[in-house]
Amino acid sequence: MNITDFTRKEEVWTAFWRKEKLNRPVMCVTSPLTGDEVHTHRSDDNACAHAIMGTAEAQKRYLDSFLKMVDTTYYGGESIPHMNITLGPDQYAAFLGAELTIKDDHFTTWVNSCVDTWEGFETKLHDDPDSYLRKIIDFIKYAVNRSEDKFIVSMLDLHSNMDAMSALRSPQELCFDLMDEPELVHKVLDEINKTYPVILNRIYEAGDMKRTGSIGWAPTYCPPSEGRFAVVQCDFSCLISPDQAREFVIPALREEISHLDRCVYHYDGKGALGHLDDILAIPGIDVIQWVPGDGQPRTIEWMDLLRKIQNAGKGLWLYDWSPQEIIEHRHELSHEGVVFSVWLGSRSEADEFLARMGPAM
User: Fold this and answer.
1) Taking a C-beta distance cutoff of 8 angstroms, is the pair 178, 244 a contact?
2) 12-47 pLDDT tens trace
3) Distances, alpha carbon 318 to alpha carbons 68, 85, 120, in Å
4) Is 214 strand, coil or helix?
5) In this predicted structure, what is the pLDDT of residue 35?
6) Is residue 357 within 8 Å of residue 29, measured between CB atoms?
7) Is the residue at 117 inside a domain?
8) Does residue 87 fall inside a structural domain?
9) What are the phi and psi torsion angles at 282 (to 5°)?
10) Per-residue pLDDT tens for 156-184?
11) Distance CA 166, CA 135 (A)
12) Is the CB of residue 100 less than 8 Å from the CB of residue 90?
């Protein structure tokens, strides 16, 4: 790959995953390459979905715009340029037959619930030439061919397991199903879990990730030597009790993680904290991204929680600290397995900040 300083970055990321001692946390620092402006590329779920489902010309415009953004962005520290390709948070449900809603005046996409009952529901991947799965795979291959080794393609943000079931059925109805027909929920969930490695392998191969390494929308780069990477989550878990999570969610997460070598768990919302000990007990989770949720204090104000995560042997991806907060408070956490994401206004600011942080190794 022709990413600047790539060999050094790869060495640092390898040490990160192996929890080896570093002189500082891993730093994903980005800024405009020159001046104080970067090319604005609209990369939200809706814009990307329009490109994926659009004409060849629409796809070319999208890639042209992304490449221009890469060419005008400074990727400092251990930052790796990557394209997050997505049909939105309900794309897994779309792979199973749900219809996506993609509107020009929105920034995300969604599906409307389409399952009235799980009785008789056929769990299969829709894989005809016009299917969402085939369209996104074709777009990933196109992006790889256009990348010129200037960026890598991300593993999809899948929202599988019970998140997919929730999108297909609706969150409220799925909550009722857990009480009214748990055996049927188990049956469908097991069938959905079987599709996970199939999709994972298809995306991994289409994205040429065995050669380039893998990354997610979480910017934690996984070199080829460290195997397959994805972000896993179950946002639906915030609606259910710890006992229900242990029965349905935790086994599904363990099954998914068994197909990965490295992973980040996207822990979304205060309402899901009742499952924290069970999540931390899953050996295959390397890193936690704690998202407090709207209206909650930022992650720096959850130090006791962050330390608990580290004491359980998990790393942290922290995305909302200011540069000054990182400099002042980074020693309150162990450096091993910690990565910060920071956007700064100019390359000179980025370089000055990185100089104050010092070398990673």
Assistant:
1) yes
2) 999 999 999 999 999 999 999 998 777 889 989 999
3) 27, 22, 43
4) strand
5) 80
6) no
7) no
8) no
9) -80, 115
10) 999 999 999 999 999 999 999 999 999 99
11) 23
12) yes
Q: How many CB atoms lie within 10 A of CB 57?
A: 8
Range of the domain at 318: 6-37+72-80+215-357
Residue type, 289: Q
Angle at CA of residue 117, ends 114 and 120, nearest 5°: 105
Residue for token pair 């393609």: 153
Q: Give dist(CA 170, CA 101) in Å, integer.
A: 15
Which residue ranges of the chain lie beneath pLDDT 70?
Answer: 1-2
Indicate whether 345 belongs to any domain: yes
In contact, 340 and 6? CB cutoff 8 Å: no
Q: How many domains does the chain have?
A: 1
Contact 46, 88 (CB under 8 A): yes
For residue 95, what are its two tokens?
Answer: 């792979």
Q: How far apart are CA 202 and CA 205, in angstroms?
A: 5
Instruction: Answer whether residue 88 is part of any domain.
Output: no
From start to end of 170-278, where are the E strands?
Answer: 229-232, 262-268
Length of the chain counted residue by residue: 361
Give pTM, 2 decimals.
0.95
CB 298 within 8 A of CB 305: no
